[in-house]
Amino acid sequence: MAKRPLKVFRTAIGFHDAYVAATSRKAALEAWGADKDLFSSGAAEVVTDAGDGKAALAQPGVVIRVPRGTVAQHIAAAGNSSSPSTQEKSALRKNGAASATARTPRRKPSRTRLDRAEAALSRTREEFARRLEEVERKIEVLRREREALRNRMEEEVQTMEQRRRNEERAYQDALTAWEV
């Protein structure tokens, strides 16, 4: 199966453009962490200018954030209630594109510690479940032992009570014979 070629995708995130090199729109949306289709609403697009996508193509799957203009331009734009023209947007993107290559993209956080914690949690649950089963088995053995002991006690107590009655009768008979 042939590998799909990489495309560069872009979306706006605050005062930045987020570029990512991916094989599909779906992969780009996952890299951005988007929960809806940004392409259908026009909030994301395929980049056709090779210069804009160089940094993203160097690290496929990594989101490259490029500032859209300078701080002064952001402040100036905030003072103007009208939105910037297409030419202004293009100029802002071009100004920020140079700084994209100077920045090192942040690495995706490692799942190693989370995976270890999940594995430890699973092992702990399994261990306690095993120990609880063992205790339940011991409790059942003790219940049976208690029931057997009660039955044996009742039998022996009845036997001993019968013996005591017999001895009492014999004593009463001997006492009566002695008195006469």
| Range of strand content | 5-15%
Q: How do the SSEs run, as a string of H and E?
A: EEHEHEHHH
The figure for the number of domains is: 2
Low-pLDDT windows of residues = none
Please list the strands of the largest sheet in the order they lie side by side. Answer: 3-1-2-4
Number of strands: 4
Number of helices: 5
* Major sheet: 4 strands, antiparallel
Radius of gyration: 42 Å
Q: Distance between termini? A: 120 Å
Please state the overall shape, judged from the principal axes of the Cα atoms. rod-shaped
**Structural class, please?**
alpha+beta
Q: Helix coverage percent of residues?
A: 55-70%
Give the overall average pLDDT.
84
Region (Disordered): 76-119
Biased composition (Polar residues): 79-89
Protein name: Cell envelope biogenesis protein TolA
Organism: Novosphingobium panipatense
How would you briefly describe this protein structure?
This protein is an alpha+beta fold and 180 residues long. It has two domains: 7-102, no CATH class; 111-180. It is 62% helix and 12% strand.
How does this structure look, described?
- It is a single chain.
- The chain is of the alpha+beta class and 180 residues long.
- The chain has two domains: 7-102, no CATH class; 111-180.
- 62% of the residues lie in helices and 12% in strands.
- The chain contains five helices and four strands, in the order E-E-H-E-H-E-H-H-H.
- It has helices at 25-32, 50-58, 71-79, 86-102, 112-179; strands spanning 7-13, 16-22, 44-46, 64-67.
- A four-stranded antiparallel sheet has the order 3-1-2-4.
- A hairpin with a 2-residue loop joins strand 1 (7-13) and strand 2.
- Helix 2 (50-58) packs parallel to helix 4.
- The mean pLDDT is 84.
